[in-house]
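Can anyone check this?
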Amino acid sequence: MKLAKFKKIILLLVFWPSIFLIYHSFLINFDTKKYWYSSNFSNKIDIREPFAKQLSNSAKIDDFDNQFELKLLLNPNFLSTESKEISNFNLEFIKKIEKSGLKFKEVKSSKILPIVWFYFDTENDREFFVKNSIENSFISRYIVYKNEGNKKTKPLSWFHYNDQFLNGYNYYLSKYLPKSGFDKFKESMSKNIKIVNFEEQAKKDKSTYKTPQTKVGAIEFEDEFNYNFKSYFNDNNIHINDLGSTNKWIKPITTKYDENEPYHSTLVSLILGSKLGIDTKSTSYLSIFTTNSQWQKAIEWMVETNNVRVINHSYGATGKDFYDYKEDAFFLDFLARKYGVINVFAAGNGAREYSDEKYEDHPWIDKKSLSLNSIVVGALDDNSEPWKIAKNKIADYSNYKTGQEYYELAKPLVVAPGRIYNPVTNFKDRFVRGTSFAAPIVTGLISTFLREKPNLDNDDNRLIALKAILSASAISPDYSDLTIKRSGYFEKYGSGTPDFKNMLKASENTYFISDQKKSDQETIFTSKPFWVNSNDKIKASLSWMFNAGLLKNKVAAPNESSYVSWWWFLTPFTPVGLPVAGAAAILDAKSKMNQHKNDFDKWSETHINSERLKLETTKKNQNGNFVSDYDLYLQKLDSNNNWVDVSWSTSSKSNDELINFKAEKSGYYRLYVKKFKSVIFDNSVEDKLALSYLVNNEK
């Protein structure tokens, strides 16, 4: 009896602590399971805020379910960079994942880059997927987008509606839209057109019948396009690729119609390329996204599928913290360098943001708009007028700051009017303002300019020409207390306010320079002399690109077949007949395979594909720099017939240089470009530069 009681006591002593440990372990797992990635168990994993949250401060975003988005950067093992082969590689990778039995809900793949995105039902599924594929040599990096908290917003399909309902709503919209709405929109557009000196070109386009010759795109976040406004585009010619708008015109019954109406994508498109907008002779393309994969697919749809080369981006958060340059910005720089894509970004509206009943300063130009080959546009304030261009002031909300490493960059490059009447909303009669509406004005100027100057519309010269011409032709602000960067650009205004007529003039004074000299500290270009009258202003700009890791000659991943020796083919036979030779064959084959794996891993650490290096490797090869250091100088011919430097721009970390000089004396002047330090490495593509200048009597 005593023995039985003793056994029970022993069992209780063992059993209850076990129950506690199991229960305690369950609590720990339950509490931390959602944040399994916080342990940072692999350097292949990057943790990011939800992609939608990076672009919006709306409280609604906290409730949005991104379906546990997981982005994989892959390592292709072939030489070709053709889109078809990359797409096939991505699809083959997905098939292998499916065969492996790893569970996922949905998958999307890129057509241009070796990138795929997986989506899951639960965080547990995502964790299991990552931990059980972490050794896969074809996966270079995992990017995990957080999906924490209780998500209330349903998947995107929850918002789908049928077309019949939409048609009825459009009838209601057109019936009750205030008749004066578009009159006010046209009036506000007319004023903005005058501010950027586009009035003459607008009249010319209106009186000239031309079929659309240019393509211009807009990538928008969240807001659905209102199809009732399609008739305001040439022959209803706006192509819409709605990949995931979540802010819909047809709201759930519990939502008030006048609450957060999704006008943004429609209004930006109207400003950019409608019959009442800037480029009235263009074919418009619009793509709407919410997740990272949708953003990438939106750009691919523009660039790869539709050959769009001028794209407006009127989105971006106004966060408290600065977000550094990442792979999305690197991707944009690659598109610019290889295809000549001009990405125009709104600077953002956080410089004086109202939050928690007080104004806060979040003036950052960061994330994607930090891409060195992109154009960033700030906004002028509401009191801007066509008759006082140089005296117009920057809007207090317009972002202008970057991290210290990027301070010399020309961000913003220019500023434009950002106040416009909004004809899209149904129940509010109001003007709206923001850099979102300044950016499409500049984007429209660019696409119109390329239509007028088709000789500049090629992949090699398009971007560098436009950056140099925009800078050289802009009207500088006329204030005494302005901060000027070493690159010559104003901290808040960039080069100033665009002037379309000046752009056309500056295009006649534009040079393209290919740097083929090997040594530093050399003059690589000198312009022809030009005459300048006293009191005239000379404005000159030099622009070049970040090469984004592009290689001159392709470097393929190590091919497995080249590592297999003839010994390998003896292995099925020799262990029996020739045991010594068989053992040697097996050892040699294993050694070759291990060597292939090591070489492939080494290649994968440095290459995105056969024509591109990864960002870290690119900067390492360039001694930590993004771009080469070129300086711009202005000289005057003196009375002794000697050329003397009179002005210069000598920043070290910018890929744009600007000179703004007022001539005290009449005479001959010229410009020259000096290479201070090159970052070109073996097998890198060479630097290409554009220089533009304008002489005028701007007051």
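Reply from J.R.: I decoded it. Residues 2-32 form the longest helix (31 residues).
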